[in-house]
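Structure request: ketol-acid reductoisomerase (NADP(+)), Diversispora epigaea.
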Amino acid sequence: MNSSSFLARSSSRISTITLQLRAKFITSRSFSILSNSRFLGEVRIPKFPIIKRVQPTQFRRVQTIVIGGTKERVHERSDYPLDKIHELFKNDTISIIGYGPQGRGQSLNAKDNKLNVILGLREGGRSWKEAIQDGWVPGKDLFTIEEALKKGTIVGNLLSDAAQKELWPQFVPHLTKGKTLYFSHGFSIVYKDQTHVIPPADIDVFMVAPKGSGKTVRSHFLEGRGINSSYAVFQDISGKAEERAIALGIAIGSGYIYETTFQREVFSDLVGERGVLMGAIQGLFLAQFEVLRARGHSPSEAFNETVEEATQSLYPLIGQNGMDWMYSNCSTTAQRGALDWYKPFRDATKPVFEKLYTSVADGDETRRVLEKNSSPNYREELDVELKELSESEMWTAGKVVRKLRPERK
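Returned structure:
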């Protein structure tokens, strides 16, 4: 989600500007995005455009984008209207196995898009009860895992990584010739020496990986937006695996989808989660908070300057139009400080990221995940660690500060 996040920002900006400039300025379906470029064709773009975002659902302008000489193929929601998706999957039953964040978000979105979707869950379990609350009906579109595996022509294995390893023997007898298996993470396929997940050779296997939590997959869909996703094909027996992967990606809530491989997806995903998305940001927040507290600042002030201003003010600006736009909307004092200090932070943390990437590529991270998450009490053990974090002074201060936030009108 590092390079893909930059790509997503660039794509968002290109789509927005394209609609603003109208089709008469477009002479090519391939754009070059250079790091310091402010030009699109012959039209000069303001350095820091403040443009209301427009959902590019009616126009198709970009098939290939070029960033620093690297070409990337992308697809947008407008490439696959619902009637085309319905035609592609008219004879299919899509069985989603698992109702965690991704299983819930993807299945509900596909169901709302009028595809024939059923769930396979442990009868009577927590997810089973949650699915019923969401409107799934036992015997109609809610079944046991075994029943859903039998009925599905397309099987979505959206169980947790540890559960995929544990339940894989239950999948194999039902993955018969002509069926399709899809994942939303490359974990089980790439680390097959640890998971023992090896699909039969006579079925299509692909991946659709949303770049965000399942909760966001669902909330973006309900807001009429689409989440960025990647896709990859592992086995193409039918000759249609790529087209079906992209179409299913759109059906489950993607607005923009780009090509990758199972290995690149899982490597970048594991690094991202442990890095800037969660682990690194938690570590940076905590380090700055602790320094401010040690130098006499109050918990409220330390939290506001560390987390609140970042998440409520600056990060949303990055999300809207990118890092350069965020810089342009800060004081020159802030800009000077950021330009002076980003390199020391990069130099200090880059060796950590190198070590992290090596740990992912060597399989050490996945061994730890499978070992920890295979414990019968792993959920309780995880909750204990999370509770300790949530009760720390920094996050306690955050709970108080959030209560003081003015309500958004």
